[in-house]
Write the structure tokens for this entry.
Amino acid sequence: MKTKIHSYKKKRQQGSRLFLILFILFSLSVFLLLSFIPKEKSPPQKKEATPIEEKEPSPSSPLETNHVFIKRGMTLTDILSPYHFSPKEIHKIREEVQPVYDLSKIKAGKEMRIYCLPDGGVERIEYDMDEEKYLCIDLKEESCQAQLKKFPFQVKEKMILGVIQDNLISAINEQGEKVFLALSLAEIFAWDIDFYIDIQPGDSFKIIFEKKFLDGEFKGYGNILAAEFINQGKKFQAFRYTYPDTGKSDYFDFQGNSLRKEFLKSPLKFGRITSRFSHSRFHPILKVYRPHHGVDYGAPPGTPVQSTADGTVIFKGWKGGSGRMVKIRHRNDYQTYYLHLSRFARGIRRGASVKSGQVIGYVGSSGLSTGPHLDYRIKYKGRFINPLAWRFKSAEPLRKEFLSDFQKKTHKYLIHLQAPSLFINALTFGI
């Protein structure tokens, strides 16, 4: 009896194991079968339309930049023809860009950049208008999109100081800066200091100015914001201020007095005096004593000559021993004379209006002259006066309603100019 019961239990256990194995095999078969049955796709959800201009721009293909430096006589056709533009396409570009800029007036010496795709197609053209802005022509669409853009300069402020041993340009160069900064400083103080005869060894200067950078590369100077010049022990200071209502800028001392006067002290920015005003001077060519009612400035041929005040040209041409000459009439019964010029500046003609500091001609040796120089003369109320000794009136001061705003904005620069020289290099101006 016990043997039957044991055999029954053994068969029962074997049946359970067989059932378990079959169940596992069945489950595995069902799983494999379901995994190969394609799933029913849910209907796509409707998306709201998005305006094209709001889409994220797709990464553009890398562009090859070709730099074209425009030579004298080059036209837009000369520049674009190598890029497979047809005459019709070039005419279309010129016509569509016309409202923004006339491409027939591109100037020699300027740069044009052609941005090309890998397949050789041109996507964009840029043309430098001046130091501040450029023309951008987008050719990606059917019609050209042209606009003027400003260069994205990074402007930093810097301060330098120096002592003159030889001349202003050398002293500026010793501080790591360029000639243009020296010329700009000379222009600011040109009504009080003649940088030909007044400068002495030991004179000193401090300048707070802007430097412009593009992609980390120095691209030029901005404005001089404040400056100080000590000439033969006398201190001159200048602060730049822009009127909020007119946008016009000028330089004043901290009390609001204008640095401008009726006349600049010199018609040349740099040079040397070779002969002074005299009522009896031995003429080097005629070999006789005669009055010399002017000041001679020796300078290389072609040196620019500037009008020393606003006025109107009343003579331009050849005048005997004076050679090529320009004569200008100014307010308050003044006249100025510029003799022995090599040539005249563009636009200088009888009746033309000129501004103080405007170039009117270039140093030469025309007429009775032993070498290149400028003979500069001033006549006041019908008689010649000594330009080096005459005291000219100052221009209008800062408008009173803006004096408080001016002093508030320039006070920080005054503090820096007053700082002892020992600490100036420690001042931080972003460079």
